């Protein structure tokens, strides 16, 4: 096997620490060609579709990729912003804010974000961190609830990359934080702020991304972790069991997925006389197609068409200060023992070096 070429290395150099926020991904543009490329990579992942590859590739290439990208591109176009894909925009901002927050707490490390599918890819970001001198890397997926279809797929991408690398860095992986107190508190603050502005609903619906039901019986803890997040959030909000509902969205194909399904549940609530629902998606920490289009648009239409009168979508955590604080604390817990804090002596040396460099720069400018 030919290993990737290592960046130049100077003996005696102290390695840096890197942190990657990993998210699902997004097309590069709301166009059929860009969506087709994205879906090909996404739907070719055996973690996402557990059908034997030879059979699935026929289905994918003959019945899905020729038709689905156009419809999906139209949906992406409805949520696309001047800055680009909402998911990418929020993930990038979260990485920037996390870097700043950790810096204020005295940490010095490289913070970057990567997408499991699309750009910037996990391998590209891992190469970037190695080039920056990182020999310790923390992988922090932006999935609070663990699933083999999401979190494990990120880990697969990391391990697959390092199969081709000679000098592998020390790695740490964050598996889940579905019951983290800071995460739950940030969700609570988001809901309460929404209710302060709009009043309380008849029912709060917590909609999570769906996965095939068979994954539960095969040992995936995702379903249980979603329900624990919901119970903890409901308890913080003081809600009884009859005041909230947990559902699962984004069903794909004919197989049975985790139930109850979001859209039919909203229709049923409306038919039962529920006039107002608020919907929050706790499993998504940044707004994306599945929240802004599938929930805020399609699910709203379903509820109103079935007789409901008031549907309100509660945005994801996005750049909420409480969420960034929670994210920083989760990162700090997993960075424990790694050299990320600058000593007072090193700070003084860095400050002195910066002052010397500034004096030299001014002197060179005067000479010119």
Automatic annotation (TrEMBL):
Q: EC number(s) in its UniProt entry?
A: 4.98.1.1
Q: Any idea which UniProt keywords this protein has?
A: Cytoplasm, Heme biosynthesis, Iron, Lyase, Metal-binding, Porphyrin biosynthesis
Q: Main location per UniProt?
A: cytoplasm
Its annotated pathway reads: Porphyrin-containing compound metabolism; protoheme biosynthesis; protoheme from protoporphyrin-IX: step 1/1
List the InterPro entries hit by this protein, alphabetically.
Answer: Ferrochelatase (IPR001015), Ferrochelatase_AS (IPR019772), Ferrochelatase_C (IPR033644), Ferrochelatase_N (IPR033659)
Cellular localisation? Cytoplasm
Among Gene3D superfamilies, the record links this protein to: 3.40.50.1400
EC class (word): lyase
Domain of life (superkingdom):
Bacteria
Q: Catalytic activity annotated for this protein?
A: Fe-coproporphyrin III + 2 H(+) = coproporphyrin III + Fe(2+); heme b + 2 H(+) = protoporphyrin IX + Fe(2+)
Mind telling me which Pfam families this protein's record contains?
Ferrochelatase
Q: Per UniProt, where does Fe(2+) bind?
A: 209, 290
Q: Which family does it belong to?
A: Belongs to the ferrochelatase family.
Q: What does this protein do?
A: Catalyzes the ferrous insertion into protoporphyrin IX.
- Name of protein: Ferrochelatase
Source organism per entry reads Keguizhuia sedimenti
Q: What is the lineage of its organism?
A: Bacteria, Pseudomonadati, Pseudomonadota, Betaproteobacteria, Burkholderiales
């Amino acid at each position: 096997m030919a290993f990737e070429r290592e960046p130049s290395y100077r003996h005696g150099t102290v390695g840096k620490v890197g942190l990657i926020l990993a998210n699902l991904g997004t097309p590069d543009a709301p166009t059929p060609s860009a969506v087709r490329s994205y879906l090909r990579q996404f739907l070719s992942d055996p973690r996402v579709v557990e059908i034997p590859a030879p059979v699935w590739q026929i289905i994918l290439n003959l019945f899905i990729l020729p038709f689905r990208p156009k419809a999906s591109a139209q949906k992406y176009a409805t949520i696309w912003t001047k800055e680009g894909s909402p998911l990418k925009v929020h993930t990038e901002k979260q990485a920037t804010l996390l870097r700043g927050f950790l810096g204020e707490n005295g940490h010095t490390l490289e913070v970057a974000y990567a997408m499991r599918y699309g750009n910037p890819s996990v391998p590209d970001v891992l190469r970037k961190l190695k080039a920056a001198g990182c020999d310790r890397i923390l992988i922090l997926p932006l999935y609070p609830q663990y699933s083999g279809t999401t979190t494990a797929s990120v880990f697969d991408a990391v391990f697959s990359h390092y199969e081709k690398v000679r000098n592998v860095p020390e790695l740490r992986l964050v598996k889940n934080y579905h019951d983290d107190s800071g995460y739950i508190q940030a969700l609570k603050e988001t809901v309460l702020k929404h209710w302060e502005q709009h009043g309380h609903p008849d029912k709060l619906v917590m909609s999570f991304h769906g996965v095939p039901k068979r994954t539960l019986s095969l040992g995936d803890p995702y379903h249980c972790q979603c329900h624990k997040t919901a119970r903890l959030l409901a308890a913080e909000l003081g809600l009884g069991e009859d005041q909230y509902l947990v559902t699962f969205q984004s069903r794909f194909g004919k197989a049975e997925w985790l139930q109850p399904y979001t859209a039919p549940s909203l229709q049923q609530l409306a038919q039962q006389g529920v006039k107002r629902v608020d919907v929050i998606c706790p499993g998504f920490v940044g707004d994306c197609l599945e929240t802004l289009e599938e929930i805020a648009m399609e699910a709203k239409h379903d509820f109103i068409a079935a007789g409901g009168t008031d549907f309100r979508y509660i945005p994801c955590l996005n750049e909420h200060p409480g969420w960034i604080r929670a994210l920083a604390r989760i990162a700090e817990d997993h960075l424990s023992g790694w050299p990320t804090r600058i000593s007072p002596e090193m700070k003084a040396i860095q400050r002195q070096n910066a002052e010397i460099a500034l004096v030299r720069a001014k002197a060179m400018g005067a000479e010119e």
